[in-house]
């Protein structure tokens, strides 16, 4: 590998690291509007834990299928510094509330009223999930939901928590 290639790679890696750090700062200041019994908060209040953030909507079939998986994740890693949160991007808050009444959960759920949070996270498909470390940095992104993504997420968390 020549010097030019090495410098290009170093520049690209530095850009990715700086981008992640600056995005973490922006994300931490975002307000989270609670649904059902979940209280309003901000991302920075969740800092200190690993957070699995899932963007979903009631019109998205794979999103609906991801809820039992998220319930299982929360249950499996409840004794670790880990939290699952789901953020609805439904235009009508009532749709999300009805879904939650029909589908019991064990994690916090929020509503992205104007799509501000989804825009900051730059979601590219539904559902999209992010694993965020205790410092607020995004360490994993999964677009869509299927057996492969379930396995990848579970393996990542098992590796983090040495299970």
Question: Could you characterize what this model shows?
Answer:
The chain is of the alpha/beta class and 163 residues long. The chain has helices at residues 3-28, 43-46, 61-76, 93-102, 116-121, 147-161; strands at residues 31-34, 41-42, 50-56, 82-88, 108-111, 128-132, 138-143. Strand 4 (82-88), helix 4 and strand 5 (108-111) form a beta-alpha-beta unit. It is globular and about 40 Å long. It starts with a helix and ends with a helix. 25% of the residues are buried. Mean pLDDT is 83; it is low at 1-23.
Secondary-structure topology with pairs:
Layout: H1 3-28, E1 31-34, E2 41-42, H2 43-46, E3 50-56, H3 61-76, E4 82-88, H4 93-102, E5 108-111, H5 116-121, E6 128-132, E7 138-143, H6 147-161
Parallel strand pairs: 3-4, 4-5
Antiparallel strand pairs: 1-2, 1-5, 3-6, 6-7
Task: Please sum up the structure shown.
The protein has 163 residues and is an alpha/beta fold.
Task: Give the termini separation.
Answer: 38 Å
The proportion of residues forming helix, as a percent range, comes to 40-55%
Number of strands: 7
Report the major sheet: 7 strands, mixed
Radius of gyration: 17 Å
Question: What's the shape?
Answer: globular
Kindly state the mean pLDDT as a whole number?
83
Sequence stretches where pLDDT stays below 50 over 5 or more residues: 1-23
Beta fraction of the residues?
15-25%
Written as H for each helix and E for each strand, in order along the chain, the element string is HEEHEHEHEHEEH
**Order of strands across the main sheet:** 2-1-5-4-3-6-7
Query: Number of helical runs?
Result: 6
Secondary structure class reads: alpha/beta
